[in-house]
Amino acid sequence: MTHFLGSMAGQLRRRWLYGLLSVVMAASLVLVSPTPSHAQTVPRWLQLLFRGVQIIQLSNISDNQEVQLGQQINQQLTTRQFRMYSDRSINEYVNQVGQRLVPASDRPNIPYTFQVVDTTQVNAFATMGGFVYVTTGLLKTIDQEAQMAGVLGHEIGHIAARHAVTQMRERNSRRDEFEADSKGLATITTAGYAPSGIVTFLEKLGTQRSVPAVLSTHPATADRITRLRQMIDPATANAGAGLDTAAYQARIRPLLLVRSAG
Q: Which H or E run includes 14?
């Protein structure tokens, strides 16, 4: 939903992408790169060629290499880019829901890390290597655990499809979001959550006055809802866990008692 969100207000996702690129370009996985002492003397066309080689190499990295790169990106994001939410119970709850989804995903063979960013912006996003982030603003906006599962499932879908790498080679954001929706729906359903959660969350976001960050770089919400509804059997849309609103509110109670950062 890397996610779903869109994966932070257009500006936040761009910050993530720029941070990602800066780390990627410095990664030791790259075999060909001009040295700093000669960087300014290398023609721009050759620098672009070097970057192209880097991206091609990234598309061929192993799972272990991707996880290591994701760890580097996560370090940059959590120490320099974002203010992380520290409440242990909220982080454990998000991680619990996320880890329930992992075995049901298309890519359960890498470790996943689910973290909470302290901001009022409504968003979620993912980076390569199994790192998923949701904002406190999003957790306050959703009503049910099934909706959170839908968000996390979407972001896991981005990781399963390795969109962080493919988007560096070509711009297919619309196609990627539809694919992540499809994968996310399959994941939450297999994990035992009610499939309606992913739809009701999108419907709720669509009614807000201003466009949430999570939707700012995504295809039209109505198109996503239509596609998802076509994939869900109405007879089983509400069959599954995560639809108890009161239970969800009780789990995020510590978050509702405090004010998040802007």
A: helix 11-26
